[in-house]
């Protein structure tokens, strides 16, 4: 600890520094909440103390300890956590960057013109993609465009059989394989209804049935491998670009 800064500390802050000095070996594995509980001080006291000691926060202090105790294997956990977090950041950055790179201005323009000329927009989505679909619906409505969004298979199927050629359907599906959406796309194809699909799988049956296709990049990394809750970030990027471009064209 820094002697100059120590003189400026309150009683509880001095208590904290004493606790840390007596437990340096445990600090790398501690979260700020755990330290708060064990040292019997608030997390606010920890943050305030670290700032008085010249650090940005508790994590910054742990980095300092790691550098000062480079030969202590217990401090390697700090670097390990950093790498894991950086990997998570890189995963999301890659999905955004590569998805944008995959977009084609001509396809965007085609979609805008089709949407603009349509009497009604219908958006079909299932699962977590419903959240993106709802946002899209609201934004179209705010731009005075008639738009409905449906996520119930028992509604999607019959509606897809009674659309007119002046309507347009937008499918939002990460894997492009959802059965009820594929069935709805087949109905649209039979009745010559224009369809737009936003997906991360260009080889799925839904993508192959679509008139206008937007494909995003989906990272192979999943932090929830036991569940079908993969990130819809690439789909969000595509819909945001499409909506912004539509708004620009309709000022």
Description:
By secondary structure, the protein is α/β, with parallel strands linked by helices. The chain has two domains: 3-71, Winged helix-like DNA-binding domain superfamily/Winged helix DNA-binding domain (Arc Repressor Mutant, subunit A), CATH 1.10.10.10; 94-249, 3-Layer(aba) Sandwich (Rossmann fold). The protein contains twelve helices and five strands. The chain has helices at 3-6, 11-22, 32-39, 43-52, 58-68, 76-102, 105-117, 129-142, 153-160, 179-190, 205-209, 233-249; strands spanning 120-125, 147-150, 167-173, 194-199, 212-215. The protein has a five-stranded parallel sheet with strand order 2-1-3-4-5, sandwiched between helices. Helix 8 links the parallel strand 1 (120-125) and strand 2 (147-150). Helix 6 crosses helix 12 and helix 7 (105-117) crosses helix 12. It is elongated and about 80 Å long. The termini are far apart.
Can you lay out the helices and strands and say which pair or pack?
Blueprint: H1 3-6, H2 11-22, H3 32-39, H4 43-52, H5 58-68, H6 76-102, H7 105-117, E1 120-125, H8 129-142, E2 147-150, H9 153-160, E3 167-173, H10 179-190, E4 194-199, H11 205-209, E5 212-215, H12 233-249
Parallel strand pairs: 1-2, 1-3, 3-4, 4-5
Helix pairs in contact: 2-4, 6-12, 7-12, 8-12, 9-10
């Amino acid at each position: 600890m820094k002697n100059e800064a120590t003189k400026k500390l309150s009683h509880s802050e001095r208590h904290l520094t004493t606790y840390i000095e007596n437990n340096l070996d445990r600090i790398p594995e501690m979260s700020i909440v755990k330290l708060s509980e064990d040292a019997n001080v608030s997390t606010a006291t920890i943050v305030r103390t670290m700032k008085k000691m010249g650090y940005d926060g508790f994590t910054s202090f742990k980095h300092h300890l790691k550098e000062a105790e480079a030969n202590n294997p217990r401090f390697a956990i700090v670097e390990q956590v950093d790498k894991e977090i950086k990997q998570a950041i890189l995963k999301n950055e890659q999905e955004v960057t590569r998805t944008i790179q995959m977009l084609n201005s001509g396809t965007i323009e085609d979609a805008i013109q089709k949407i603009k000329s349509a009497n009604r927009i219908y958006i079909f989505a299932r699962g977590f993609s419903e959240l993106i679909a709802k946002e899209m619906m609201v934004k179209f409505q705010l731009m005075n465009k008639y738009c409905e969004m449906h996520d119930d298979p028992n509604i999607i199927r019959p509606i897809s059989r009674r659309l007119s050629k002046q309507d347009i359907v937008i499918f939002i599906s990460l894997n492009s394989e959802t059965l009820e959406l594929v069935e709805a796309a087949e109905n649209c194809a039979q009745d010559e209804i224009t369809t737009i699909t936003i997906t991360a799988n260009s080889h799925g049956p839904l993508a192959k049935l679509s008139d206008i296709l937007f494909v995003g990049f989906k990272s192979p990394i999943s932090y929830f491998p036991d569940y079908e809750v993969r990130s819809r970030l690439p789909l969000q990027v595509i819909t945001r670009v499409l909506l912004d471009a539509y708004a620009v064209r309709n000022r």
